[in-house]
Amino acid sequence: MRTAKTGGPQGAFMNLSILVGAGLVLLGGVLQGLFAVPMKFVQRWKYENTWLDFALSGLVVFPWLVTATTVPHLGVVYRLTSTHSIIGITGFGLCWGAEAIRELEFNRICNWLWGIVETLEFAQI
Fold it and tell me: 86 lies in which domain range?
């Protein structure tokens, strides 16, 4: 059974790639966890406005910027990708967005109903 070489310049590059990838995943997790921190400083804004800013920058602008700067020949990659794959990826993205909106509305309704329950319980005392 053959094993992969770990020495030499290619092995060092692979190890560096893994470290860079793990570091980027860690950085992404930290940034995802800290996304709500700016909300403390924009108290005049409604929650939805802050969330829209986060969503546009974090889900549209920065991914496209990172992709455009790190993927060589991006146009060729998209041209070689089948239409079926592009439609599937777009469909899953749209379903994810629709579910996020549905979840927000569900939470709003649950909070409203919980407020009614608490009010009724308080009134019985």
Answer: 82-125
